[in-house]
Amino acid sequence: MKHEHIVSTVHPGSIGEEMGIEPGDRLLAINGNTIEDVFDYHYYVDDENIVLLIEKPDGEQWELEIEKDEDEGLGLEFGQSLMDEYRSCRNKCMFCFIDQMPAGMRETLYFKDDDSRLSFLQGNYITLTNMSDHDVERIVKYHLEPINISFHTTNPELRCKMLHNRFAGDALKKVDILYQGGIEMNGQIVLCKGVNDGAELERSIRDLTGYLPYLKSVSVVPVGLTKFRDGLYPLEPFTKDDAKEVLRVIHKWQEQIYEAHGIHFIHAGDEWYILAGEELPREERYDGYLQLENGVGMLRLLMDEFGEGLERIKGDDRKRELSFATGRLAYPYLERMLSRLKEKFPNITLHLYEVRNDFFGELITVSGLITGQDLAAQLKGRELGDTLLIPCNMLRTGEDVFLDDFTVKDVEKALQVPVDIVKSSGQDLIDAVLGRN
């Protein structure tokens, strides 16, 4: 039955447990309001005084009056995290990474989400083409923020072409409503050579500055191109000169925007600096690292954390031999960092390996898209020491599974060496190398 949400978990010691709510119960209403989805639930449950209408499996209904602290949760989880069906993407973007994946992978990897509720809950970026007027009204009413938006361009006609959706241009009007409602936003532009770069990029940046101060940041990242693009829009990789020009445009706008608003606003993904052969910006240029999930400032943050952590410790003569595997993007930076660590710990032997992405193609250089089979094949017979370290982003969040369904145990068996997972901070890297994790 619609708008009846089945409780799947009641956390021990929670308000829900205290009130006698059990798995299998149905939530019918809060304060007399029918709960459509997680947006409604979060809004109504935050009140200090609430009345829940619960239906037991035998059909008996309980009306529970609850007095609690504002924003205190009930300790309930439901069968669907959104308390509704996930909304799949209606676009056919010319740059979509999922369309560039080979057949035969895990089914969930092919699901294209474009759900505004996931933007609020998990930070996903959405195109707005799947967002109804009702969704926008509720975001403003409940003041749900931040909302992360995939702009790609502010040219309506070009946006329709890039997303292969005739409504994609009109969807940008929803940004005006969010702006007028005072909703914080972040944005991204996936740059495609000869499509939305050059004058179109300049136009997009100029237009998006009009949404300051509620639009907090916009990232510009290069399109990811795999070897599986047969039948797709013909896109070309960016060159070193292209990257230099993109950075010139972004840096020019950063200076203008900083002078007017005190923030840099428009940010280049780390890949642009590596491709251009230019140094990464200093920490202050990233405005608090609002775009880490888009690969903006990840390497700068890692290097700074590593440097600060290294300053705090004294070297010694401990002996270890181990190895570390990473993608081409991060390799030169890790090489530089780990050589500094070796100066303090001269008896540690660390073999650093750059893993080529044979699975998706050599144009994919980030460690997060390295597969278990590439890792095993390329490190077979290499000097690995007592332990192989890999970054946590090679694995599915919270699991020990690579994108190709290889597990950590599969890699350990193939290479005959234990594998340790390194968390994301610079201090985590130091601890892993020193055996303190």
Short structural description:
This protein is an alpha/beta fold and 437 residues long. The chain has helices at residues 15-18, 38-45, 116-122, 133-142, 156-163, 173-180, 199-208, 240-261, 270-276, 298-311, 331-344, 372-379, 408-415, 426-434; strands at residues 5-10, 26-30, 33-34, 49-55, 61-67, 76-78, 125-126, 147-150, 185-191, 215-222, 266-268, 320-326, 348-354, 388-391, 419-422. The chain folds into three domains: 5-78, Pdz3 Domain (Roll); 98-296, Alpha-Beta Horseshoe (pyruvate-formate lyase- activating enzyme); 302-434, Rossmann fold (3-Layer(aba) Sandwich).
Distance between the termini: 48 Å
Content of β-strand: 15-25%
Instruction: Output the CATH topology of the largest domain.
Output: pyruvate-formate lyase- activating enzyme
The total of helices stands at 14
Mean pLDDT: 93
